[in-house]
Amino acid sequence: MAVDIVFLGGPGAGKGTQAQILQKHFGYRQISTGDLLRAHKRDGTELGKAAADYMSRGALVPDDLIIKMVEGELSDDAALFDGFPRTVAQAQALDEMLTKRGRGLPGVVYFEAPRAVLEERLLGRWTNPRTGRVYHEKFNPPQVPGICDEDGGPLEQRPDDKAEIIKKRLDVFEAETMPLVDFYKVDEERFVAIDATQDMDDVTHELLHVIGVAHAH
Ligand code: AP5
Description:
By secondary structure, the chain is α/β, with parallel strands linked by helices. It has helices at residues 15-26, 33-43, 46-57, 63-73, 88-100, 115-123, 163-177, 179-185, 200-211, and strands spanning 5-9, 29-32, 79-82, 107-112, 125-127, 134-136, 191-195. Strand 5 (125-127) and strand 6 (134-136) form a beta hairpin. The longest helix has 15 residues, at 163-177. Bound molecules: BIS(adenosine)-5'-pentaphosphate. The site of BIS(adenosine)-5'-pentaphosphate has 37 residues, from helix 1, helix 2, helix 3, helix 6 and strand 6.
């Protein structure tokens, strides 16, 4: 049976990019808390309204809101958690949720990259707001600038991908999410770090190797 996997890493480390590749080619079910929150915002739900201010400031949305949202997304299929958990309280809640469903603890892949790399990636990112498909103007450009290769619609820059908010998100990551590395590292069996500064294909390759699906394809 496939195991649940957590993608841990700073903003811009490439978690969403790799989760989309694994979902498309290998059938993993991606649960991206960032994408879910943006959908709630677009749909004007109570959660979307409550989260909007935190997101626009680059702060974390409170744990209780996030944990409830994720719980509602769980199914019987193993998931690939992208951008969740981001605090120790969220990590403990995820372990509990999975254990309650008779599943094992999730495997954790840490996308390691220095701050300067993360900044450059976020400043050049373009996104399809309808599908979440991600491009980069230098590292992964669309065929026609500003247009999505898949649905031909316009690409946008995320409102939180502005220099001053990027700085805040990186500070928040270092202060609130980095402690999770130590939380997970204690259990060597479930934690692995990968070099997220490599080219996209090389990251995918390393990822498939560490999560053990490479041999099946
Ligand atoms: P979220 O949407 O999760 O943003 P994030 O963690 O800041 O992560 P990103 O989506 O920015 O980065 P990524 O690692 O997915 O990088 P990507 O693949 O796009 O969260 C947004 C907000 O929601 C948060 O600030 C918070 O307010 C709230 N939130 C979400 N989850 C929460 C939670 N659990 N708790 C509390 N609050 C929460 O890649 C980035 C760019 O680099 C792209 O342009 C891509 O094309 C390029 N790229 C990717 N890989 C490579 C590579 N190997 N080489 C070169 N370029 C690359």
